[in-house]
Amino acid sequence: MFNLLPRHSIKMMLAGILAVSLTACASGAPKPKEAAAPKSNDAPAAAAEASKYPEKPIVVVAPSGAGGGWDMTARTIAKVLTETKAVGKPITVENKPGGGGAVFLAEYASGKKDDYKLFVSSPPILINNLKKEGNSPFGYKNTTPLAQLTKDFGAIAVSANSKYNDLKSLLNDLKADPTKLTIAGGSAPGSMDHLVSILPAYKYGIDPKKIKYVSYDGGGEALTALLGGNVDVLGTDASSLDQYVKAGKIKVLAVASAQRLGGSLKDVPTMKEQGVDAEFNIWRGIFGPKDMSADAKKYWDDNLKKLNDNDVWKKELQANNWESDFKSSAEFNTFLGQQEKLIQDMLTALGMQK
C-alpha cells in the first residue's frame, strides 16, 4: 500500500505519527516504570534518609561553674539522653563560666555556627541583655530557642548556724542597716541571683542599691562562700539547695513560689506567706545557634519532646525538685518575648534598666 504513495507522503505520515507520540508523552502518558515518581507516602522516608544529623558528638554547655542550676540541668539532660539511647552519639557537658553566662554567649553568638554545640540557660539570657551595667549586646534572639524544660523558683538561704530562722527577721535587720549583711549569688550584679536576692528586700521597702551583693561564677561557688562564712545570705534557685538541706548545712528561709514546694523544702514557707509579695519563676531551657539548620532543629524538636515524656527524665525532675514546664521551640520563642517585657519592667523598677 505504501508503495502506492509518493515517497515524500510516507515521510510526512511518519513525522506526524512521531509528533503525536511526543505530544502524548508531554501531556501525561505513562512513563517507564524505572522513571516513575515516588508515591506521596514515600516522601517522609526520603526526607528522613536525606537528614544525617547528628553525625558527630554533641556538646551541651553550662555557662557557669560546677554545682549550680545550669550545670545540674546540662548534666541531667546529657545523662538521660545517653541512658535512654535517644541520641546515637556521645554527649559531653562543658562548663564555661563568666559574667553570669554573658561571656559564653558573646563567644557563642559571634563565633562560627555549630549545630553540635547547645547550651542551657534561664532568665539571665534576658537580664544580661537588658540591664544597664555590665550588659551583654547578645540575647535570646541571637540563638535558636529549642525548648523550655523545667521551672524552678528563687530561694533565700543562710548557713545552719545563722541566727536567722525566717525571712522577716532578716529583712528587719536589713531595713535597719542595708549594709549590715553580705548577700551572695552565682551570677553578676543585676543578673538572676542578684534579682532573687534583692527582690524581697525591695518589696519590703529597702533600697536595693544599698544592699551588699557579692557575685560568684555559679551557684556552687556561692554556696561554698556561704558555708565558709564568707557571706551571710545566699540568693539562688531552690532546687540547687536540696542536698545541703538534707545534710543539715543550711536553712532555707523562703522560696519565691506561689505555693510551697515539695521534697526537702516542703516545710519552707513562701515569701508571700511571710508578708512579702514576691515571686520569681526560674525557667530553664536549651538553646542552639542562630540560623540552626532545619535538619538539626527538627531533630531536637522531636527528641526534646520525647525527653520530656520519658519516665527516666520524670524521675530526675523529682529527684532534683524541678517542675516540668515543657514548651516547644515555637512556644518557647513566644514565651521569651513575654518574659523580656516582664524583666524590663522589673529592672526599670530597680533602676537597673539599660
From TrEMBL:
The keyword RNA-binding does not apply. Keywords: Signal. It holds the Pfam family TctC. Residues 1-26 form the signal peptide. The keyword Signal applies. SUPFAM superfamilies: Periplasmic binding protein-like II. PANTHER family: TRICARBOXYLATE-BINDING PROTEIN, UPF0065 PROTEIN YFLP. Belongs to the UPF0065 (bug) family. This is Tripartite tricarboxylate transporter substrate binding protein.
